């Protein structure tokens, strides 16, 4: 029977192989000493299991050490919306001088990247990071190449060209789980909607309270054809995707627009028969319909 030292030595040999260049030809995804079973457990892709016996000869592992081969997929990081993520998808935290939210991946005139709110980046040429700028790690996500406000558009949106791995038609749902955008649509008053912002752990939900709204923001800019929603949005959620769940599965959604801010409209005593918060002081979230964004930036979802 192999000694504990022999088991540990074999584990060390295989661990070094996993971190080295040889792992590409003979991949190993997990390895540990099972002290109870007195064996070294080696996890490999199912397709590589027929070649598993070659590992002992390739690494010259002690013949007295028992190896138990099992099927194992690569480990995944359970990253939150505010942590580094790959691929980039809608709902993730992005940063410039402040914080915002990635709307969705897209293609603008042949350039691959993603969208966010125009006021998140401010101007073209601004570097964007996911989740934030770091001196220790390369979290660079892209560079703002078009900002609607700056470039004469009618919406508050921006396109960021990105060299990163991009998750097409995906919105963050949970760690390593995504909503799939199967369609785009027009918001309808009374319809239930969801917003995946970067500032709270869970998606926010509400209904479309009004469409075709013209709003003036505190910086003096005016935007037409906006929508009021009763979901909760807070600073840093700007750019977040707003969507409806289609019922075609628990991950299929229809993209409706981009969250860009909020407004308080006092309707007390006027529309009290409408669901809160309309009759409770009117703290609305504001989102821009997807079709307005697509027309303004000439962007499509498929890259």
Automatic annotation (TrEMBL):
Name assigned to this protein: Serine protease
Taxonomic source organism: Actinomadura rugatobispora
């Amino acid at each position: 029977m192999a000694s504990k030292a022999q088991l540990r030595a074999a584990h060390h040999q295989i661990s070094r192989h996993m971190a080295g260049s040889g792992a590409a030809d003979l991949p190993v995804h997990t390895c540990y000493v099972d002290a109870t079973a007195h064996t070294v457990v080696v996890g490999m892709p199912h397709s590589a299991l027929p070649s598993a016996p070659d590992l002992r000869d390739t690494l010259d592992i002690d013949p007295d050490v028992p190896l138990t081969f099992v099927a194992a997929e690569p480990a995944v990081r359970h990253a939150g919306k505010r942590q580094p993520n790959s691929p980039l998808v809608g709902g993730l935290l992005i940063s410039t001088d402040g914080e915002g939210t990635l709307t969705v991946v897209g293609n603008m005139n042949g350039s691959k990247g993603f969208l966010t709110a125009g006021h998140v980046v401010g101007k073209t040429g601004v570097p964007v990071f996911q989740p934030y700028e770091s001196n220790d790690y390369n979290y660079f996500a892209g560079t703002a190449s078009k900002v609607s406000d700056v470039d004469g558009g009618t919406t508050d949106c921006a396109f960021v060209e990105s060299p990163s791995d991009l998750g097409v038609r995906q919105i963050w749902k949970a760690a390593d789980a995504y909503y799939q955008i199967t369609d785009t649509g027009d918001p309808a008053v009374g319809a239930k909607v969801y917003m995946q912002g970067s500032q709270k752990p869970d998606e926010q939900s509400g209904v479309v309270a009004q469409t075709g709204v013209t709003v003036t923001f505190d910086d003096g800019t005016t935007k037409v054809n906006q929508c009021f929603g009763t979901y909760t949005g807070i600073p840093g959620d700007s750019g977040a995707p707003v969507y409806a769940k289609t019922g075609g599965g628990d991950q299929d959604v229809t993209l409706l627009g981009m969250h860009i801010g909020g407004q308080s409209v006092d309707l007390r005593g006027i529309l009290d028969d409408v669901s809160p918060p309309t009759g409770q002081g009117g703290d609305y979230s504001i989102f821009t319909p997807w079709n307005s964004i697509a027309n303004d930036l000439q962007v499509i979802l498929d890259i």
